[in-house]
UniProtKB/TrEMBL annotation:
GTP-binding as UniProt keyword: yes
Matching NCBIfam families: F420_cofE
Protein name (record): Coenzyme F420-0:L-glutamate ligase
The protein's enzyme class: ligase
Transmembrane segments: none
Pfam families found in the cross-reference section: F420_ligase
Gene3D superfamilies: CofE-like
Keywords, comma-separated and alphabetical: GTP-binding, Ligase, Magnesium, Manganese, Metal-binding, Nucleotide-binding, Potassium
Keyword set includes Metal-binding: yes
Domain Coenzyme F420:L-glutamate ligase-like: from-to ranges: 21-229
Length: 261
């Protein structure tokens, strides 16, 4: 989105996380599983279900479960091997009080996350859940399925939770996307004082993901939310996906801790 398109940005958002999403298991068609809950969403104006311009935000956990990404992790040593298999580069590590090692790593998707995004919460004992193999492809499948079942072509974002350097707390971010303009490039637009913006590129998909997490979540049992009011960021085509949000190494000023010529 160029700076000129900022005039199309709305002034309000509504996010709803429906109840009624069943437990997801390997082989489930996520679009089929989610459609009844999404069609039951009631909006403040009394309307129901999905509309064009909505963004469906889905936790990567249920995507991974549907795609059979559950692996054995019967003890700490096996869990460490799983993390190592998903690791491309170790960014930082620190011993844990229990004798294990906390590792912040770059995983196969290019994401920098604790434990490579390997998750042992809300899964059977002795197992661990990997992130989807291709979250953008997962988002495209969900979008196609929802369109076929509802007649609406929403944007779809697949999210996962991660920490941020120098900030306490975790936030949800987009790791997969379809039909959503994931970045808004404001460079060249002018502020109210007439100054041209030089570097402002907004991570739209990540901001939608974080907003949706305020109403969904693993504890509440609501793994999906719908965000209304971001129609200006929803596209007819699937777009380049969330993979384009990963900063390439040549642009990463923090890769080695100092920017050297």
């Amino acid at each position: 989105m160029s700076g000129d398109a900022d005039a199309a940005v709305g002034t309000s958002l509504t996010a709803v996380a429906p109840d009624g999403v069943p437990v997801v298991t390997k082989g489930d068609d996520l679009a089929a599983v989610l459609t009844p809950a999404l069609e039951g969403v009631v909006w403040p104006d009394g309307t129901r279900g999905l509309a064009e311009g909505d963004v469906v935000v889905v936790s990567s956990k249920i995507v991974s479960k549907a795609e059979g990404r559950l692996v054995a992790a019967r003890d700490e040593a096996e869990r460490e091997r799983v993390i190592a298999d998903e690791t491309v580069r170790v960014v930082a590590q620190r011993p844990k009080p229990d004798g294990g090692m906390l590792r912040i790593v770059e995983n196969r998707l290019g994401l920098v996350m604790a434990a490579a995004g390997v998750d042992t919460s809300d899964v059977p004992a002795g197992t661990a859940l990997l992130l989807p193999e291709d979250p953008d492809a997962s988002a495209r499948r969900i979008r196609r399925g929802l369109h076929a079942r509802t007649g609406v072509r929403p944007g779809v974002i697949v999210t996962d939770t991660a920490g941020r350097p120098w900030r306490r707390g975790v936030v949800d971010m987009a790791i997969g996307a379809a039909g959503v303009r994931v970045l808004s490039d404001m460079r060249g637009a002018r502020d109210r004082y007439g100054r041209a913006l030089q570097t402002t590129v907004i991570g739209v998909a990540d901001e939608i993901a974080a907003a949706a997490e305020l109403v969904k979540g693993k504890v509440s049992g609501r793994p999906v939310a719908v965000v209304r009011g971001m129609g200006h960021a929803v596209t007819e085509d699937d777009g380049e996906g969330a993979a384009s949000l990963v900063r390439p190494p040549e642009e990463d000023m923090f890769r080695k801790g100092v920017d050297e010529p």
